[in-house]
Design goal:
The chain is mostly helical. The chain has helices spanning 10-20, 31-39, 53-69. Helices cover 52% and strands 0% of the residues.
Amino acid sequence: MQQRLTWTQVHDIGFELFEAEPRLDPLTLRFTDLIDKVMALPGFEGERDKCNEKILEAIQMAWLEEFEDQD
């Protein structure tokens, strides 16, 4: 069963984004593009207007941690 995700699950979201695009450096994304990628994740149930810069930074850092740990 697919995990349901919300904005508060920043580490899970970061992992899912890394799994979806392991070669993409998350630091190259604008926050507007990051929001779109998060909202497109299977099982994501958050609303765009419930997100803020602090949440996006946390997601970006969680994704970066996965990205830097590969290999």
